[in-house]
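Review this:
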Amino acid sequence: MWLVVDLVLVGIFAVIGRLSHYGTLTAGGWWTTAWPFLAGTLVAWAALTATRRPPAAITSGIVVWIGALVGGMLLRQASGQGTATSFVVVATLVLGALLVLPRVVPRVGARVRR
């Protein structure tokens, strides 16, 4: 389940980016923005699987975050897409929030209920 959640959240990241910069959304435009980050997410998931890390763990979210971010930026650079410093900063913050916070919130909620 977490793999699907992570891929959907990375897809939402691309939707937000496209809409904020272009004001419209097309499938091709979305794919251009999303594929590097989706590929980075899948590489991170391969690492999680290989190391048998629990997908719901906060540390697993951090691995997916770093994989999506670094893999995405490297693939964007290799494919001639932009990696401006401001974009890297925003992507770092937004991807971190999207990929790590869903793993943090249930734990905080469980502690509050105790």
Remarks:
- Residues 1-106 form one domain.
- The chain has a mean pLDDT of 93.
- The chain has one domain: 1-106.
- The radius of gyration is 15 Å.
